[in-house]
Sequence to fold (491 residues):
Amino acid sequence: MTRTATTTDDEVFVDSAGQPETRGIELIAEADRHGRPRDLFFVWAAPNVSVLNFTIGATMITLGLTLWQAVLVILVGSLPWIFTGIVAIAGPAAGTSGSVISRAMYGILGNRVLVAFTGWLISAVFLALNWLASSFMGADLLARIGLTNPVVWPIAVTVIVSAITVVVAVYGHGLILRAYTGVTVFLLVVFLAVTAFVLPHVDWTYRPAQELHGVPLWAAVTIGITLLASTPLSYSNSPDLARYLPASASPARIVAATAFGGAVPSAFFTIVGALLATGVTRTQLDAGIDVALLDLLPAWLGVFLVIGVVVNTISLNGMTVYSSSMALQAIGIPIRRIPSAVVVGAIGTALTIYLVLSTSLLEAVNLMLQFLVIVTGPAMAVFVTDIALRRNRYDGLDLFDERRGARFWYTGGFSAAGMTAVIVGGVATALGLSTTVWSGAISTAMNGVDLSVELGMIVSAVLYAVIQKSPLGAAASSPLALSDKTPHTRK
Fold:
């Protein structure tokens, strides 16, 4: 089956909370557009009222930062949410998913390579990370009532939560848009109640046994920023959730709703995680922030917290599976969106079960988030730069033209600008990365200072802009005409 830009006569797509969404990457006609930019605030807030924020916040303390240094790093590390917001505006402009829009950056064949890697690897990792959190907390709660099997119960929780998640992805955009406002309110109530019980345990004067100064301090600060930035930089799928908005929707409002929806709850509860880490022992932290939380809370609130973690996991992973199902179509695999969502869910479940049996939550989160920026930072930089160069003008029909010599065929199906920028930017990111298992040459030379995000994004953005504007940036048969003030349309 070949995916087409628009629907056929016998296909009727419905965007409703009460029916599965059969539309995949097909273009959305203006008559089918609906909603307001402000709706995106709750779409992005629900997934980011998360226990993983507690984990990342606690990591800021284990890095050796003081409490107030950790708070400052968390605020700075939340700034990349602006990139998630900027990328979202391409959705209404093109009327299709981000995994199709990126054909303009990498070429028809180059995009398949990038989407296969980013759309699947990143999605599988984030599915696993979030299901892992709910699995550990669900198993901890069950252990307190006597169900202590360390293999059976975590796997059972994973399977149940993943199955519900796939259902959310199958119902798709209509359900996400309608339900996530209520989900956000519920999660805020639960997590603010948890915060109220955490605050009495906070050591407001906390300082590490050995305070960091000079290069070691900068190393801890930059590693913390890399960890924090990895989450918003991974959301290059933000056009998928905005693509149903009318083409006339305000780009500024889309950016604001998306960025603030992700950044505000994420930063707030990450700070709460740092506060929590000052009031518990390192042994408790090593056992997992989930264990530390359940030890502090009354039994009744512990139950609600686990429910909240599960609901948050479903909301976040529902969005991830939803986008990944379209990424599979964009690669060129002949599969409809609903079966694709089931396949993505099965892969993520398998990876989660493996992690449940082999690692701790804290260890898994820290390593995976750091390594992901090798891919996500350069890809996000290229996307944002392309939007700026084109002034957010994307012709949906051209994006679906996969013929040789088409506008986005470039040279042999690959864009020199996009492929060079993302590969060289990834190398620059790796050279600046500092983790417990890998330290790049630049980071090593700087005694552990981690400039991976900054290096990778700057290199990718500059390379992409320079090459794209040069004769090498476009095939002779498909000039980009960046100076053309009239949006390209097919006659």
The longest helix spans residues 108-143. Confidence is low (pLDDT under 50) at residues 475-491. DSSP finds 22 helices and no strands in the chain.
